[in-house]
Design a protein that fits this description.
Structural class of chain A: alpha+beta
Largest interface: A-B, 34 and 35 residues
Helix content of chain B: 40-55%
Distance between the termini of chain B: 54 Å
CATH topology of the largest domain in chain B: Glutaredoxin
Shape of chain B: elongated
Shape of chain A: elongated
Structural class of chain B: alpha+beta
CATH class of the largest domain in chain B: Alpha Beta
Oligomer: heterodimer
Strand order of the largest sheet of chain B: 1-10-9-4-5-6-2-3
Order of helices and strands of chain A: HEEEEEEEEEE
Number of domains of chain B: 2
Distance between the termini of chain A: 58 Å
Radius of gyration of chain B: 25 Å
Strand content of chain B: 15-25%
Strand content of chain A: over 45%
Order of helices and strands of chain B: HHEEEHEHEHEHEEEEH
């Protein structure tokens, strides 16, 4: 390989490494997908939100809080089945291990969304702001959808 | 020889042995019969048989503020689920599965009713209950009133519920049974369907239990 090509190759390698580190800082290492909010009866003041949170980095990342202009408060909960009794356990934070996906889904981990500022119907969207460790902040537009039997991806432990 | 036997010292012991043998044989036969009939029913998951619990008089208010009791259960097959409207996950999930199951069953079962009984009657007022259940299906029944009223039903079915505010979350949470109970037209608790709840599973279990119960009468 001649000197010019060698120089080009080296530049290319460093550029790739540089860009990767830039993107890593920007939070591309966390990806939130399939975010949705269940439609509920109009009188209900607490809704459930679900999503897949993927941590592509090689270190654990923690979901600290979720907020939204559409709700007065959002908490993270897990529905727990103990024998025949069900209860909800509030999670102060949610750790997502390196190179893993945490799935929030019906009957399991979910977002508890308090006091919608207006009733949400299937087809509406709501903005959710996920605040994670390392200053990572991700804004998502979650779609409101009516529950159906097919949503029950079976995470029951 | 018989004459000798009847006056011999062996008579009473012989009779005693015969009696014991007869009793043992009889006991063994009835045990086998019981086992067989048990085997026949134990393949139906969730069925309470024999001796299903008879529900006695109770009084709550329905979603129209009318009194609801045992009289409204008799003559119908009732699915009963205990939950509350401030529960955003398990309760709506279950109600949604019940709605899908009901839609498939109702055409062939015109004596079927689905009941949502609130374990949080303080916040689940008549008005709220009405809007809550009718969202899932306009035929659904919502029960509430006071804690005392709800206890007249939960106590009989054997359902536990309790307030939980260890999370110090806004408002309070209620821990409760996640099972769906099946009451037959005689007002007997004949089934308990365990979570996780799925439409096909509910339809299958209901059909099996109803067929079995109808065969018994």
């Amino acid at each position: 390989m001649n000197k010019v090509n060698l120089l080009l190759l080296t530049t290319f390698i460093f550029q790739t490494l540089f860009l990767n580190s830039v993107f890593a800082k920007e939070g591309f290492e966390v990806d939130i997908s399939e975010a949705w909010i269940s439609e509920a009866p109009p009188t209900v003041s607490v809704l459930a939100g679900y999503a897949n949170i993927h941590n592509a980095s090689d270190r654990p990342i923690t979901l600290l809080t979720v907020s939204s202009p559409n709700f007065s408060k959002i908490e993270i909960h897990r529905s727990v089945l103990n024998g025949d009794m069900v209860s909800m356990k509030k999670q102060d934070s949610l750790e997502i291990p390196a190179r893993s996906t945490i799935i929030l889904s019906p009957g399991d981990l979910h977002l508890m969304l308090f006091d919608p500022v207006k009733p949400l119907r299937s087809g509406d969207t709501a903005s959710l702001n996920f605040s994670l460790s390392d200053g990572i902040s991700i804004f998502i537009e979650a779609k409101v959808a009516r529950r159906s039997s097919e949503d029950h991806s079976h995470h029951h432990h | 020889m018989l004459k000798e036997l009847s006056s011999s010292k062996f008579l009473i012991p012989a009779m005693a042995i015969l009696a014991m043998l007869a009793t043992s044989a009889g006991f063994y036969i009835s045990l086998k019969q019981a086992q067989q009939s048990q085997q026949a029913v134990s393949t139906i998951e969730g069925l309470f048989w024999p001796n299903p619990k008879q529900i006695n008089a109770f009084s709550v208010l329905d979603q129209d503020g009318e009194t609801f009791g045992l009289k409204q259960m008799k003559g119908k097959w009732s699915f009963v689920f205990f939950g509350y409207s401030h529960c955003p996950d398990v309760c709506p999930v279950t109600m949604s599965v019940m709605a899908d199951s009901y839609k498939e069953l109702v055409d062939d079962n015109n004596d079927l009713q689905v009941i949502f009984a609130s374990v949080d009657p303080n916040r689940d007022t008549t008005e709220k209950l009405s809007q809550y259940v009718s969202y899932f299906n306009p035929d659904f029944i919502g029960l509430g009133g006071t804690n005392e009223m709800i206890n007249s039903l939960t106590g009989q079915i054997g359902v536990a519920y309790y307030l939980n505010n260890e999370n110090q979350t806004e408002g309070y949470l209620v821990d409760h049974s996640a099972s769906i109970f099946l009451i037959d037209p005689l007002g007997r608790m004949v089934g308990k369907l365990s979570p996780p709840h799925e439409k096909n599973k509910i339809i299958q279990q209901f059909t099996k239990i109803k067929t079995f119960i109808n065969e018994q009468s």
